[in-house]
Amino acid sequence: MPKQIVDSEKRWYVLHTYSGYEDNVARNLWQRIESMGMEDKIFDVLVPKEKKIKIKNGKRKVVEERIFPGYVLVNMIVTDDSWYVVRNTPNVTGFVGSGTTPVPVSEEEIKVLKKRMGVSEPKYKIDVRAGDPVKIIDGPFKDLEGKVNEIDEERGKVKVLVSMFGRETPVELDFLQIKKI
C-alpha cells in the first residue's frame, strides 16, 4: 500500500533543511539521484539565491544571498521511492506540507522566484534605516551629520536631512558617502 499520494506530474516541492546546509543538501541530493537511478522521478534541485550589493568598509561588494534560508526546491514526481530518497538525504528535515505528504508549489510562484533569481543587476544592501543618525564621509557635505530620511535601494541612494542655516535640508547622497554613527 503506497504511503504517498502518487501524482504522475512533475511538480516543485519545498524541502526544509538545516540553515546553512542548503548547498550541501543540493549536492548530496544530486549524488543520491544519480547513484539510486532516480533521474526519471527527480528532475531538478534548486537553492534560490539572488545577487545583492553590500557596502562594507566603504567598498561595494556583490554577494549572493539565499532568498529562503533553510529551504531547497526540488522538481520531482512524488512516489514512495522518490519521497524516500529525498527525505533521507543528510540535513533534510522534511518536506513542507501537511504531515508526511509534500504540498507542491504553484507554477506561478516558481516563475516569480526564477525571475527574481535571474535578475542580473544586483540590489543595493545597506545597513541603515530611516531615522538613523549618519555622518557624511564624502562629497561637498563631508563631516556634516544628519538623519536618514529616505532610502532608494534600487538606485543605491539615500536622502539625509542635514541641519544647514538653522533648518533641516534634504540632501541626496550615494550609500558610499555616509557612515552610521
Shape annotation: elongated
Oligomer: single chain
Radius of gyration: 23 Å
The level of helicity is 10-25%
Q: Mind telling me the CATH class of the largest domain? A: Alpha Beta
**Average residue pLDDT:** 88
- What fraction of residues sit in β-strands? 35-45%
Order of the strands making up the biggest sheet: 13-12-11-10-14
Structural class, from secondary structure content? alpha+beta
Uncertain spans:
none
Examine the coordinates and then state which fold CATH places here, giving the name of the CATH topology of the largest domain.
Alpha-Beta Plaits
Summarize the helix and strand pattern as letters. EHEEEEHEEEHEEEEEE
Any idea what the CATH architecture of the largest domain is? Answer: 2-Layer Sandwich
Offer a concise description of the structure.
With 181 residues, the chain is of the alpha+beta class. The protein is built from 3 helices and 14 strands. It has a 5-stranded antiparallel sheet with strand order 13-12-11-10-14, with no helix packed on it. Strands 2-5-1-6 form a 4-stranded antiparallel sheet, with helices on one face. The protein has a 3-stranded mixed sheet with strand order 4-3-9.
